[in-house]
Amino acid sequence: MSIPRLLVVDDDPEIRSMLTQFFQQNGFIALPAATEDQVRAHLKSGRIDLILLDVMLGDENGVEICARLRREQDVPIIFVSALSADHQRMAGYEVGADDYIAKPFNPQLLLARVRAVMQRARRTPSLAYRRRIRTFRFGGWVYDGKRDEVHAPDGYQVSLSQRETALLKVLLANPHIPLTRDEIAAALDVTGSGDKPEAQGRAIDVLVGRLRFKIEANPKEPQMLRTARGVGYVFACDVAVEDEA
Amino acid sequence: MSIPRLLVVDDDPEIRSMLTQFFQQNGFIALPAATEDQVRAHLKSGRIDLILLDVMLGDENGVEICARLRREQDVPIIFVSALSADHQRMAGYEVGADDYIAKPFNPQLLLARVRAVMQRARRTPSLAYRRRIRTFRFGGWVYDGKRDEVHAPDGYQVSLSQRETALLKVLLANPHIPLTRDEIAAALDVTGSGDKPEAQGRAIDVLVGRLRFKIEANPKEPQMLRTARGVGYVFACDVAVEDEA
DNA sequence: AGATCAACGTAACATGCTGTAACAAAAGGC
DNA sequence: GCCTTTTGTTACAGCATGTTACGTTGATCT
Predict the structure, then answer these.
(1) Could you list the residue ranges forming a coiled coil in this record (chains A, B) (predicted)?
(2) What is the pLDDT of residues A81-114, one digit of tens each?
(3) What fold is seen in the domain B5-129?
(4) Short-list B130, B134, B102, CA closest to B118
(5) Cβ-based neighbours of A44, under 8 Å, separated by 6 or more
(6) Fold adopted by B134-243
(7) Average pLDDT of B137-148?
(8) How far apart are CA A88 and CA A100, in angstroms?
(9) Residues 194-213 of A with CB under 7 A from strand C
């Protein structure tokens, strides 16, 4: 394989050049870009093996851009973000990103991830499916990221709705961390237009209630999906994560 | 693994340099920092394996800083404190600290703890889980840190409210030590926004009363939750502590 | 001992937050 | 288009927590 070419997309010039230089020094050809148009230009003018995409691109939303790019072309994309709050956003829905890395990052880790994704991309025939797939285990339960399904422990028989599953995913991605209703709502709405700063009613409460009813042994005394009074909710359960190829 | 890099955060220059030198002499790369901004700067500019964080950073609250950092990045954090009174603060709520050490410390112990935490961090995939879990036993009672629940001795049947449980945790962390109402309130509110210097009414008294009613055999003559007249309250009961992996 | 006064215990009330049933709206399925 | 399922809204009841008020306790002084 020839020298890998990657596109560094960030609106902060400092970070952009920092990243570009870092990858250049590590044997990549790294091209800087700041806007969606520039990205498209690069994609048209030459081969790009991977895109490093900032989640916050000025007032643009990296997630949206990713979704658009993905529809048009199969480029591996790795998200980069400064805020862990964004992390939930990513956990909430697969947008087609191949991986996700939080700033500030460990350079070695970053390199490793980039290489891993490119490896994977080379093996995978159709890239359309590529995205981070993770399976979570908690209690006797399993969330199967591959099928996006929840499997109950033994005898149980449940089927979660789409939204319930999404909520569960957000919780699983943030175990033991109290999440406010707003944070949860934001994570759930990644799939949407991305502009819903409006105050939402009690939708989250009801959703939580319904999920409890389905996954808690005794919904009246929730063991996993606990409420953090005055704050929001916590998933108080250890979760084992499994990354899949 | 390469040389471990750790960040020493303290506003007292003397302690800062003392610690930095100590760790340098023991084969670490130790970087000093005094403010939250400096911490962030370091995190951005390079790999940091562990943070030693003073509980009192001038008028800032180390606990708050820890909570903020934790939300953004998974760095192991060890708290350092001069006052045992601060201990309550830590017991009040798990903020995500990996360990807690009281000044003045035994250098060997400090080294051991630092190494232990770094070991643990390396094994743990997602650091988001890491937090100190402790189980307390007193009288026939048990506080189960894993579930954050209180179990009554035999036949008894009680369920403590969240706040009552929190109060109990504060007391259990400081057996035989008289705590003022302010200290208790501070410890209870670690979870909150952190800015409540206002004088609080008799809330603590009432809370203590309710807890007594639930856990004392004869609430009128409390054996464990004694009042220290003119001071506050004492938990006059031997407590066995169990650390969990 | 008795008087005095501050500290404490607690019942009763006030407030705010949460759980949830019941209804309404929206999204699919056929 | 009609029916079913999912999702959001609203309203209300229940609970957790804080506040107030008042009676009691205990320390101190004379």
Answers:
(1) none
(2) 765 444 555 543 455 667 777 665 666 667 777 8
(3) Rossmann fold (3.40.50)
(4) B130
(5) none
(6) Arc Repressor Mutant, subunit A (1.10.10)
(7) 89
(8) 11
(9) 202, 205-206, 208-209, 212-213
Which is nearest to A161 in space by CA: A206, A97, A222?
A: A206
Beta strands in chain A (DSSP E): 5-9, 29-33, 50-54, 56-57, 60-61, 77-81, 99-102, 134-138, 141-144, 149-151, 179-180, 225-228, 232-235, 240-243
Question: Is A5-129's fold the same as A134-243's?
Answer: no
Mutate to test the interface with A, among B118, B126, B163 (most CBs of A within 10 A): B126
Query: What gap in Å lies between CA A56 and CA A49, rounded to an integer?
Result: 22
Tokens of A156: 């149980």
Structure tokens at B199: 């004088």
Residue pLDDT, tens place only, A110-139: 777 787 777 766 655 554 445 667 788 898
pTM of the model: 0.66
| Residue with tokens 């830590």, as numbered in its chain | B90
Burial class of residue B17 in the structure, from the number of CB atoms within 10 Å of its CB (0-12 exposed, 13-18 middle, 19+ buried): middle
Share of chain B above pLDDT 70, in %: 74
Residue A102: the pLDDT is 65
Contact check, Cβ <8 Å, A175/B47: no
- C1' nearest to CA of A231: which nucleotide? C17
Q: Tell me phi and psi for residue A107, to 5 degrees.
A: -55, -40
pLDDT of residue A103: 63
